[in-house]
Structure formats: C-alpha cells, structure tokens
Amino acid sequence: MTSSACDTASPRCSSMMEVCEASSVSLREFGCEQSLLSRPDGSSSFVQGDTSVMAGVYGPAEVKVSKEIYDRATLEVLVQPKVGLPSVRERSQEQCVRETCEASLLLSLHPRSALTLVLQVLHDDGSLLSCCLNAACMALMDAGLPMSCLFCGVTCAINTEGEIITDPTAAQEKESRALMTFAIDSTERRVMMSSTKGSFSVHELQQCIAVSQEASEKIFQFYRDSVKRRYSKTP
Amino acid sequence: MFSSLKRRVDEVLLPGDEFSFEADDTISLTEPAKPEKAVCGPGLRRSGDRLVVCKSGVLRHKAPNVFWIDSQQRRYVPAKGESVIGIVTAKSGDVFKVDVGGSEQASLSYLAFEGATKRNRPNVQVGDLLFAQFIIANKDMEPELACIDSSGRANGMGVFGAGGLLFRVSLGLVRRLLAPQSEVRSDLETLFPCELVVGMNGRLWVKSSSIQQTLIIANLLQSCDTMTAQQRKQLFRKVQQGAL
C-alpha cells in the first residue's frame, strides 16, 4: 500500500481492500470491501482514513404486520456505536441514512417486505456520517436491490480561518466552526440530504456543496472500479 | 438502435447508468420500418424512452434483442416459471405453506400434485422438502407453487425421498449450474455418480451412494462460489485422485 496525501495509514487497509489514494480534492485514503459477511444478503465495509464502518443488508424479507406498507418496502436502518447503546446521536444518523436510501432505492418494486440495514461503527475518526452513507450504498449494491441511482456522502468542515476541509478528521472537526455532510446522487450530482452543524453563510454553503460534488466524482469512480474488480474475479 | 447497448455487453454497469433510444432520423425505404424493441430482463428498467440500470452487475445479451444484468445476489425473489426447492412449514385447510427463501411464504394447493383428487390427498408432512414450480409470482400477490406441469404430469417435481442433503449456494452459482454446457456440472460428472436437484432459489439437494460422498460433493459445490475455473479444476482433480 502506498500512502500519498494521508499521513495516518489505516491498519484496516489490508491487501484485500481496494484502496483509492487521495489527490486534488483532499479526501483521506479510502477503501472498501464487499460481501465480506456470510449471513447478510449484502455487506460491505468502508474505510475513510481511520474512520471505519461495516454495513449489512437483509432483505427483501418478511415484514412485521405493524410495519407493513402496502405499496412499498419498509426500510429500517440501525446504527450501532463502537461502545455502548445507540442514543440520540445514532438515531439522527439513522434518519439521515434512511431518508437517503429511501430516495435512491426503488422500494415500490418489493411491496410488503422489509429491508434492514445495520451499520456497525468500527472506529470514529471524523466524517462518520459520510462513511456510513458510503458503506450503506456499497452494501445495498452488493445485496442487488433495485436502485434508481447511487449516492455517496461527503463531509466538509469550515475552520476558524474560513478554509474548507473535505473529509475532516475528528481533531479537525473539533476545531471547525461549521460542519456539513451532504449525500450526493450519481446521476445528476444533486444534493439528496444535508446535515449541518455550526454557523456559516449562504456563500459558504454553496461553496461546500460545489466542493462535495467535485469530491463525489472521485467516490463514484471508486465505486465503479471496485465493483468492476469484484466481478472480474468471478468467472 | 441497440448499438449503444450492444457496445457495453459484458461490461460492469452500476445503478443509475442510462441508455437513450432516439428514433433514427432517416427511415429506410427498402426495409420494412419495424420499430426495434429491447426486451429488458432483470436489472434493467424502461423509463420513458430511456433504459435505466437498477442493479450492479455485468450486462448480458441474447440475440436478437434480450438484455439483462447478471448480478451476484443472495436473496431470492420469486419469478414465474422458475423451479425451486421449498420446505413445507404449515398445513392449513387445503393449502400448504412453503418456505422458498423469498420475502413471503408461497402457497401450494394439495390438488397441485400428480394424481391428487379431493379424496386422494398427497402425503405431505410439515418439514418435507419439495421441488415445485411457480405458477403465480408477482410483487403484489402471494406466490403460488405447483408440483405438476401444464399437462398434469409430475415431471420430476414433488416431495423428496429420504436421505440426501440440502444446502445453500449463491444464486449466481445456481444459474451457472443450470446453464447449457455448464462447466461446473461437467466437472462434477467426472467425480462420483450422484443425484443433484438444483432450485433457482439457491438451494441444492444432493444424494450419493454414501454419506461421505454426499458431503464431499456438497462441500465442493459450496466452495465453487469463490473459485476461478482453474482453481476448481485443480481441486476436482485432487478429489478424483482420492486426496480427500
């Protein structure tokens, strides 16, 4: 593994992982592995620098009668923190991920069924929500669920000098004045979801969106490369 | 008209990729003007005059105009006409409930067996395995199975006999096993004689002359999922020479 822009080489990036190195829009080094778990219908693990999330998708499966929706599938997202029980913070992340997934999945193709997406946080070193989104997208793709488009998550931080940092570490997040995460779709590069914290101007928001859209190109290219590599292995 | 689609055959596509079909500007006077229509298989969707990919996988093509996405999936989604291996989970009145690995249990009428009448009920117990075919399978209705074909013959379907072993493999491997001139199948034929039932829902049932041989075949097939053709041939040769 050759590390370029990043100074903290992730111990999770084994030779099994496909690794993309960061260049112009500085994202940390990121990597992914698909269908690594045997029980779920689709699984993935996504690493961004030292942040690491594992995702498992179950479904379309039998649904509880109380949660049944007659014209589309019920999507449930569970975020499990590294230690302790899920709390308010995890609930808000669950909601962000669920709404993004609902927008990209074609849920009406599997009415009266349940989809469960479990996201296990392995390590949090900043940009956790965007890592969750990326892991979720890879797992959904692995499960072969019908989707209208792909999505990716990009986190931007604005520090006290007003500089925009994409894919910040936990330390950079702490020092930042504002923190925003966007989910961007693959067809038109539109913003599907945004989650923001702190104060910023309209101009800064627009700048961050533009930077995220630029960064998303790289992530989508990575998606394509890693799926291609996966299918090249099987005859 | 399909040129844009044909160019990408055998390439890996991702959800959200699009193909657009613009009508040709010129109409040939010599050939009959028949609009070409692409038949979309799994993973492709028609949206207006565009074709949108909705699953990740390899684009496949069958002449003249059938296109589909070949993806590695684990969860089975029932499709009409497919043969599956099911497990009977309940008997209620005149239908059996059968688990086929989909999102809903399928129902199987007791009359849908060869030679079954209102008086002469088939001998099916809860927990039995059966090989059946989907006669109704769509997203809005409960899937329905039958153990007879359209002419009322069993045609290999019905309840399994004693013995044998049931196990699961990926849906991709099942399709590879069922393909005409399947390499996996011809490799398997070189080992020992065995009885193999392949369900499109990823369930395989195998029975050989001894339990040991049955287990060897089951383990071999399960490991075929992640092996290249070369690795598989090597392993099969080892087994043939009695290395296990």
UniProtKB/TrEMBL annotation, chain A:
Its main location: cytoplasm. Belongs to the RNase PH family. Keywords: Cytoplasm, DNA-binding, Exosome, Nucleus, Phosphoprotein, rRNA processing. Residues 27-146, 150-214 form the Exoribonuclease phosphorolytic domain. One of its GO terms (cellular component) is cytoplasmic exosome (RNase complex). GO terms for molecular function: DNA binding; RNA binding. Coiled coil: none annotated. The lineage of its organism: Eukaryota, Metazoa, Chordata, Craniata, Vertebrata. This is Exosome complex component RRP46. InterPro entries: ExoRNase_PH_dom1, ExoRNase_PH_dom2, ExoRNase_PH_dom2_sf, PNPase/RNase_PH_dom_sf, Ribosomal_Su5_D2-typ_SF, RNase_PH. It comes from Stegastes partitus. Homodimer. Component of the RNA exosome core complex (Exo-9), composed of EXOSC1, EXOSC2, EXOSC3, EXOSC4, EXOSC5, EXOSC6, EXOSC7, EXOSC8 and EXOSC9; within the complex interacts with EXOSC3, EXOSC8, and EXOSC9. The catalytically inactive RNA exosome core complex (Exo-9) associates with the catalytic subunit EXOSC10/RRP6. Exo-9 may associate with DIS3 to form the nucleolar exosome complex, or DIS3L to form the cytoplasmic exosome complex. One of its GO terms (biological process) is U4 snRNA 3'-end processing. It is found in: Cytoplasm; Nucleus, Nucleolus.
UniProtKB/TrEMBL annotation, chain B:
Transmembrane segments: none annotated. GO terms for cellular component: cytoplasmic exosome (RNase complex); nuclear exosome (RNase complex); nucleolus. It comes from the Eukaryota. GO terms for biological process: CUT catabolic process; exonucleolytic trimming to generate mature 3'-end of 5.8S rRNA from tricistronic rRNA transcript (SSU-rRNA, 5.8S rRNA, LSU-rRNA); nuclear polyadenylation-dependent rRNA catabolic process; poly(A)-dependent snoRNA 3'-end processing; regulation of gene expression; TRAMP-dependent tRNA surveillance pathway; U4 snRNA 3'-end processing. Gene3D superfamilies: 2.40.50.100, K Homology domain, type 1, Nucleic acid-binding proteins. One of its GO terms (molecular function) is RNA binding. Belongs to the RRP40 family. This is Exosome complex component RRP40. The lineage of its organism: Eukaryota, Metazoa, Chordata, Craniata, Vertebrata.
